[in-house]
Amino acid sequence: MSRPVDKTIEIRKMISIPDMEACVVLQQSVWQFADLDVIPRRMFVVAGAIGGQVFGAWDGTKLVGYVVAVPGVRDGFSYLHSHMLAVSPEYRNRGIGKMLKIAQREDALTRGINLIEWTFDPMETKNAYFNIERLGAVVRRYTPDFYGLSTSPLHGALPTDRLHAEWWLKSERVLALMAEQDMPDCSIEETITVTYETEQTGDTLQPLPALALELLLEVRRQFLAAFSSGFTVLRFQKMSGGSACYGLGRWDESDAIVCG
User: Fold this and answer.
1) How confident is the model over 69-105, as pLDDT tens digits?
2) N- to C-terminal Cα distance for the chain?
3) The model's pTM
4) How far is Cα 222 from Cα 215, in angstroms, rounded to an integer?
5) For residue 4, how many other CB atoms are within 10 A of its CB?
6) What is the dihedral of CA 17, 69, 37, 91, to 10 degrees?
7) Angle of helix 41-49 relative to helix 17-31, nearest 10 degrees?
8) What tens digit of pLDDT does each residue of 31-51 get?
9) CA–CA separation, 135 vs 235, rounded Å?
10) Theoretical Cys-Cys bridge with 173: which of 31, 109, 136, 193, CB 3.0 to 4.6 Å?
11) Distance (Å, rounded) from C-alpha 87 to C-alpha 124?
12) CA 27, CA 85: separation in Å to the nearest integer?
């Protein structure tokens, strides 16, 4: 079952210039980007003005998290691309990320939008578990070095390879999770295991630098081959020692359409 949300936190739409400035400050605190990669205030303003989303998580007068999305269109289909979600380190593991995602979902549905997408690092097992097992996203695409070299120390010097999460907001699997139920059964035909020797950094297991690139390239190869064969990531399982397993099967798009 999902972790209880923190009832002391208020989620609200960000509208004012000071709101957007607070997002930039929190972004710099969390990601530690060089100026080249920082999303400026005006882009938060634009996202909120053109049909995107900017939601903030507030503890009283303190901004402790935010999520920003922009409108997207692919093959004539409109959706939202959720570009960045950040939570202050001292407020993590309190359900704030899920609160922000639920706010995105509710807002999108009121506007007739049934899909939200975002990218995530295939080696970040905590994010993968959240996206797939707690939100019900599926994954069918992998882009090598999507953003180019990142200036954030959180990314190191690795290529910014990304999986593309598709969150079909009214699909059976998402509706079940939103109702605190188990996802419907699915057939897993292939698996991709993220396995690496690790070192402890705070409460996070990170790949040892000497192995990180080699392991990432192998994971890249496996995902590109699986997706070219028509497979979709449907499940995710944590294992011991910092390892995890992506479960892939056949995704029937009618699951997203029937409920929509």
Assistant:
1) 999 999 999 999 999 999 999 999 999 999 999 999 9
2) 25
3) 0.90
4) 11
5) 8
6) 80
7) 120
8) 888 888 899 999 999 999 999
9) 11
10) 136
11) 16
12) 9
